[in-house]
């Protein structure tokens, strides 16, 4: 996603990798906890929200990259890609939301918003980069 | 925006990578600048102008001059 050649890009990767590792461990741990201990009350709420924390970490790492990237063109490419990603995700989710209401389209879990955004941003970035070649 | 980056670079026999190193940006950035698809910020324009020892107006042409 970022420019791997720049120091900021390398720092992004260094932040991204451990955060994703924590994410995988957290998802597995929480899933195990709910299957084996049937937690209730505030503990259940805290456990259920736990897998989202590493994803917030990814958003933080993206923000840090934008702050630290000294190459303004690379920063610009990422900002344009993020805006396309947000626009496409919100457009898609808006349409799907009404389909859910009026024609009983399958309910889309809201946690998918961020992965959908990441996918849309990744695809958008290919087009943004091609435009500047 | 039209510019003379490619000519100035060729005069010095620098590759895009050489110029990228000197300006501390990526090679893609140099390419986007040279093709006129990306306009530099004022700070980057000043760095480019200083590197080539010319004024910004002598390198970039906004078509209004």
Explained architecture:
- The complex is a heterodimer of chains A (133) and B (65).
- Chain A is mainly alpha-helical and 133 residues long.
- Chain A has two domains: 1-70; 71-133.
- Helix content of chain A is 81%, strand content 0%.
- In chain A, helix 1 (7-37) packs antiparallel against helix 3 and helix 4 crosses helix 5 (113-131).
- The longest helix of chain A has 32 residues, at 72-103.
- Chain A is flat.
- The two termini of chain A are 17 Å apart.
- In chain A, 14% of the residues are buried.
- The mean pLDDT of chain A is 94.
- Chain B is mostly helical and 65 residues long.
- Chain B has one domain (2-57): 434 Repressor (Amino-terminal Domain).
- In chain B, 58% of the residues lie in helices and 6% in strands.
- Chain B is built from five helices and two strands.
- Chain B has helices at residues 5-11, 16-23, 27-34, 42-52, 56-59, and strands spanning 2-3, 60-61.
- Chain B has a two-stranded antiparallel ribbon with strand order 1-2.
- In chain B, helix 2 (16-23) crosses helix 3.
- The longest helix of chain B has 11 residues, at 42-52.
- Chain B is globular and about 30 Å long.
- Chain B starts with a strand and ends with a strand.
- The mean pLDDT of chain B is 95.
- At the A-B interface, helix 4 of A face helix 3 of B.
């Amino acid at each position: 996603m970022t420019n791997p050649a720049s120091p900021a890009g390398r720092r992004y990767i260094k932040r991204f990798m451990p955060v994703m590792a924590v994410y995988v461990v957290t998802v597995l741990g929480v899933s195990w906890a709910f299957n084996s201990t049937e937690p209730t009350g505030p503990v259940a709420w805290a456990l259920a929200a736990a897998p989202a924390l590493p994803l917030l970490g990814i958003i933080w790492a993206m923000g840090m990259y934008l702050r630290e990237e000294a190459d303004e063109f690379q920063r610009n490419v990422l900002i344009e890609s993020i805006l396309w990603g947000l626009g496409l995700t919100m457009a898609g989710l808006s349409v799907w939301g009404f389909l859910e209401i009026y024609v009983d389209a399958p309910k889309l879990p809201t946690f998918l918003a961020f992965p959908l955004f990441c996918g849309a941003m990744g695809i958008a970035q290919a087009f943004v980069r091609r435009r500047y070649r | 925006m039209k510019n003379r980056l490619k000519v100035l670079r060729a005069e010095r026999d620098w590759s895009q990578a050489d110029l990228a190193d000197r300006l501390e940006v990526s090679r893609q950035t140099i390419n986007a600048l040279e093709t006129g698809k990306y306009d530099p910020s004022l700070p980057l324009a000043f760095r480019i102008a200083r590197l080539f020892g010319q004024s910004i107006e002598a390198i970039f042409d906004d078509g209004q001059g």
